[in-house]
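Quick question, first post here. What does this chain look like in 3D?
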Amino acid sequence: MRSLYVHIPFCNRICTYCDFNKVLIKNQPVDEYLNALKKEIDSFPETNLQTIYVGGGTPTALSMKQLEFLLEIINNKFGTASEYTFEANPDELTTEKISLLKDYGVNRISLGVQTFNNNLLKVLGRTHNFDDIYRSIEHMDKINLDNYSIDLMYNLPGETNQDIEDSLKNIEILKPKHISWYSLIIEPHTVFYNKINRGQMSIGSPIKEGEIYDRVINGLDNLGYPQYEISNFSKEKYQSEHNKTYWLNENYLAAGAGSHGYIGDTRYYNIKPVTHYINAMNEENSVVKERIILNQNDMMEEEIFLRLRLNQGVSTERFEEKFNIPIYDVYGNAIKKHIDLGHLQQYNQYISLTDEGRMIGNDVFVDFLIGD
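> Answer (accepted):
Ran it through. Tokens below.
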């Protein structure tokens, strides 16, 4: 087993765009949740992990005592990992919390910046501001924890081209090791979704979104952050090894309310509501709500969809080794079609999206659906 994901579903504020499994931390049974999480993690098999990722919600919304208890849960079961990441909000990342994280082996921070524009941060419902971003990074510098990713979004309501340029300028100043820069997706059951449906808000057209995406890719490349995945960019040797576990379609454990893992040919999904998760762990000693057994077609499709997200693409050799059938015997027509259209390219053993193909990835992926 390569990786572990741990979900902390608590936030000090719910962002207007977020549809992750989360709740406001006030008046929530946080200690009971952590005790249930301990039981789930303790039930996992012994394994040497290469990556650990603690996300949410917002893990740094926990108190120092709760945070230390969480770190002890993971440390007592698995120790540390070569890449150990914590998600954090800029206004919650104090020197004390960073020191505590580092003491327990955390060596990478995923910092939820989203944008450097204070007005846009308010629109997104974020609790931090521009100064908090710089302050949190100063805290990390003091503790000598310099491996951090800045997480950003584009195509935001009211965003201008200048906002993108300002973000690139701040990246040049801060020099993070890694950048995740995603286009805003309007998800159901979010404040943004309701506002757009009522005509109270709008985002850029697909053409405008494509123009911004192209600027993001080129701007980051010029700053020394080559793209390695559709929305991820990094300095050399600082790619997110944990997220590559997902994109390389490899197995991983997951713990916490609403988390999902992948073991063998099975994807499992945990109960989402916090109190239901706690009760299930206490009463039934299991929080798995659903298990999906993947057949060969399912696994081949996932191999294509996930690996094509990476600039490296799909390995024809690994595909045949994994599924005992050449990739062209299964997907020859789809591959040829999209190579001819300029959406795919082949270099040695790798088939990957072209720049044009990355712009319309979903249109490419649909031709790789096999069906039952």
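The mean pLDDT is 91.
Residues 3-246 form a domain with the pyruvate-formate lyase- activating enzyme fold (CATH 3.80.30.20).
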